[in-house]
């Protein structure tokens, strides 16, 4: 068990739908380490589940914010300035692509689907960082969630892969500009995990099964493993790390071919 004490630290978590959400996996680790967290959610229908999840953690704050609606991010941060105060962490765990854009050919991506996907899934990280900037303490860690489809082709991931490439580049530029203020910006590239967002990706089950077969560890990575890296990256333990994309995928992305079933190492 990693011993990290985040008592007195505060973080904003954006994008928790339920206990399987990667945003919650990170939030839970931060909360258990003693941090106080504010959560932003897209729609009022998410609030009851967030209230249930955060009930054991006194001081949690819940605020509605649809990042695709003009003015809502600005309203979120002006509200946090008054009701929450300074930030030591920000976790951006938001992604969205219209169904049509992931079901059809990439060649047929509509301009409006391209724009919406990149706005919600990538621009929102930049806009959140800008909104948070006046609240960030020196040493703060900003974090987003990406996927290996930014680097290699996963059929049907389509425009979302473009958004993830933009998100990773955004991570590096934010790291550069916020570096002088002592603020770090990193991305976790998670392996395929069963969440609500994942369910809407056509062919997700084959992505999930393929990952387990090809990964060096011969299994899928877990939400808890993403959560632990998130805790590390937000905490002062990662004080020298910024602008990085770090994989939690059981070593899937290092493999050019599925593992040799005869194996090189004997499983214990
Ligand atoms: P999730 O639980 O469904 O979380 C995605 C969140 O994004 C939801 O809370 C969703 O809210 C929110 N969201 C979508 N559009 C929004 C908007 N306009 N404004 C505010 N919030 C919005 O799924 P997840 O898998 O944990 O996704 C979190 C991040 O991890 C995403 O960036 C995803 O691409 C990334 N990721 C996931 C995997 C995987 O296999 N699961 C792998 C690598 C990276 P609603 O519930 O209201 O729609």
Overview of this structure, please?
With 268 residues, the chain is an alpha/beta fold. The chain has a single domain, classed as 3-Layer(aba) Sandwich (Rossmann fold), CATH 3.40.50.720. It contains nine helices and seven strands, in the order βαβαβαβααβαβαααβ. It has helices spanning 22-32, 47-54, 72-83, 99-103, 111-132, 158-178, 196-199, 204-214, 223-234; strands at residues 10-14, 36-41, 61-64, 87-92, 136-146, 184-190, 245-248. It has a seven-stranded parallel β-sheet, with helices on both faces. The structure holds NADP nicotinamide-adenine-dinucleotide phosphate (NAP). NADP nicotinamide-adenine-dinucleotide phosphate binds next to helix 1, strand 5 and helix 7.
Any key phrases for this structure?
268 residues; alpha/beta; Rossmann fold; 7-stranded parallel beta sheet; 9 helices; globular; binds NADP nicotinamide-adenine-dinucleotide phosphate
Brief overview:
With 268 residues, the chain is of the alpha/beta class. The protein is built from 9 helices and 7 strands. The protein is globular and about 60 Å long.
Q: How are the secondary structure elements laid out?
A:
Layout: E1 10-14, H1 22-32, E2 36-41, H2 47-54, E3 61-64, H3 72-83, E4 87-92, H4 99-103, H5 111-132, E5 136-146, H6 158-178, E6 184-190, H7 196-199, H8 204-214, H9 223-234, E7 245-248
Parallel strand pairs: 1-2, 1-4, 2-3, 4-5, 5-6, 6-7
Helix pairs in contact: 1-9, 3-5, 5-6
The structure holds NADP nicotinamide-adenine-dinucleotide phosphate.
């Amino acid at each position: 068990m990693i011993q990290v004490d985040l008592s007195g630290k505060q973080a904003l978590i954006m994008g928790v739908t339920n206990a399987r959400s990667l945003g919650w996996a990170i939030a839970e680790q931060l909360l258990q380490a003693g941090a106080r967290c504010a959560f932003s959610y897209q729609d009022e229908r998410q609030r009851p589940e967030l209230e249930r999840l955060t009930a054991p953690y006194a001081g949690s704050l819940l605020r509605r914010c649809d990042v695709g609606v003009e003015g809502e991010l600005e309203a979120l941060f002006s509200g946090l300035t008054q009701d929450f105060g300074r930030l030591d962490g920000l976790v951006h765990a938001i992604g969205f692509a219209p169904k049509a854009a992931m079901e059809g050919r990439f060649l047929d991506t509509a301009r409006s689907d391209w724009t919406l996907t990149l706005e919600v899934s990538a621009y929102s990280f930049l806009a959140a960082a800008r909104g948070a900037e006046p609240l960030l303490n020196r040493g703060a860690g900003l974090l987003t969630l990406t996927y290996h489809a930014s680097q290699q082709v996963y059929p049907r991931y389509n425009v979302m892969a473009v958004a993830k490439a933009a998100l990773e580049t955004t991570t590096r530029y934010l790291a550069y500009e916020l570096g002088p203020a002592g603020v770090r910006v990193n991305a976790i590239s998670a392996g395929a995990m069963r969440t609500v967002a994942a369910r809407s990706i056509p062919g997700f089950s084959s992505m999930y099964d393929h990952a387990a077969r090809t990964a060096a560890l011969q299994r899928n990575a877990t939400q808890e493993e993403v959560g632990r890296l998130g805790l590390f990256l937000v905490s002062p333990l990662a004080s020298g790390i910024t602008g990085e994309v770090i994989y939690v995928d059981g070593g899937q992305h290092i493999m050019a071919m599925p593992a040799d079933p005869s194996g090189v190492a004997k499983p214990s």
